[in-house]
Amino acid sequence: MTETGTKPRIGPLEPPYEPEIDAMLKKWMPPGGAVEPLALFRTLAVHNDLASRMRVVGSGILGHGRVKPREREIMIHRTCARCGAEYEWGVHAVAFGKPVGLTEEQIAATAGGGPEDPAWSARDALLIRLADELHDSSCVSDPLWASLKEHYRDDQLLELVIIAGWYHLIAYVINAAGVQLEPWAARYPD
């Protein structure tokens, strides 16, 4: 977990940006936004060829998914929390979690609760269990898979697994590079 005040291992690019970097960073951010490009994106831009390829996958997950956005965010929040990626957890809590209908209690439960937390419905608890099993074993048990199949199609299950894998990758980058917390993002609950 990266804490505010520590020095990043790989410093994010700072403005003024080269024109090609500026154009790439604008693609990562919502159009017309007043927020500076995220430190994660500016860190990825250190390797602009790789960053441009990563954007396609990230935007595909966030903008073209087959699972409901709320369920996607439960997977993202839980995966990031389990990986100790407070940076990404906090960005998603503010930018996506609340807008897709997650309550304060549910957002907190992604970081500090388990599948039995009263914040979760039975279906939501399956997502928490899925994120946990993938994190702990890189696999899904047959009983959990059977329960998931009662609620999700194969394409949706594949997407949920890919979401967990993608956010493990993002967590690795954040934690290894020492990406600093965004001042406006949420922090893990006490």
Helix and strand element order: HHHHHHHHH
Major beta sheet summary: none
Number of domains: 1
CATH superfamily: AhpD-like
**Shape from CA axes?**
globular
Specify the CATH class. Mainly Alpha
Question: Count the strands?
Answer: 0
Summarize model confidence as the mean pLDDT. 95
In terms of per-residue confidence, which ranges show pLDDT below 50 for 5 or more consecutive residues? Answer: none
CATH-defined fold name: AhpD-like
SS class:
mainly alpha
| SS strand fraction | under 5%
Estimate the helix proportion, in percent: 55-70%
**Distance N terminus to C terminus?**
15 Å
What Rg is obtained from the alpha carbons, in whole angstroms? Answer: 17 Å
Individual helix count: 9
Quick take:
The protein is mainly alpha-helical and about 190 residues long. Helix content is about 60%, strand content about 0%.
What report would you give on this structure?
With 190 residues, the chain is mainly α. The protein has one domain (34-190): AhpD-like. It contains nine helices and no strands. It has helices spanning 19-28, 39-44, 48-63, 69-82, 86-97, 104-112, 122-137, 142-149, 154-177. Helix 4 (69-82) packs parallel to helix 9. It is globular, with a radius of gyration of 17 Å. It starts with 18 loop residues before the first helix and ends in a 13-residue tail after the last helix. 34% of the residues are buried.
